[in-house]
């Protein structure tokens, strides 16, 4: 099966439809499948439910899909860096399903493992538990959370081979691997595309069986979401004190 496509537009062709659910990998701005997001934006598909740890920043990553009003609902953990997200949410234009970050990760992992639901203590007694089943185990209350499974997962990998075996690097390993298992179709963008056998089998994070389509992308700009520094004088004084 030929998995390598010439570009992002070709890689998502025939996969997109209004009202679908998409998982988008990455953490902050690290490891986001930006070229695939651009292709989804260009397609004009709308009323999307997007599952992602966060919503990028204004006009970067998923922020582009928010800007063009293509997202109807976000299932996320952290969205504090996107002003357009906040504006749409507070204006009643965007539905949000908030999750504690660990719960979101486990919901995705469970979906990929074929587990429809699980119980966790996280969120018991809070707004997170409203409308959900709460059950007692060993004298403690646990809230039931549903596994998540999408129509399409888009992920970014540092290295991959033409059979779809993927390797992620550092922070990009947080959500990309589990999302790759939790969708009907997974499309990956890969910085370093190699031939089968060139990746040590023990180094593979996502086996190729989960990946249906691949594109080779240029080495990405490593964006910094927030940069916090001290003034030069303060840094020099601190070094002198040591």
Automatic annotation (TrEMBL):
Name the UniProt record assigns to this protein: Succinyl-CoA:3-ketoacid coenzyme A transferase subunit A
Enzyme Commission identifier(s): 2.8.3.5
SUPFAM superfamilies cross-referenced by the UniProt entry: NagB/RpiA/CoA transferase-like
GO MF annotation terms: succinyl-CoA:3-oxo-acid CoA-transferase activity
Keyword terms: Transferase
Keyword rRNA-binding: no
Family to which the UniProt record says this protein belongs: Belongs to the 3-oxoacid CoA-transferase subunit A family.
Top-level taxon of origin: Bacteria
Pfam families: CoA_trans (PF01144)
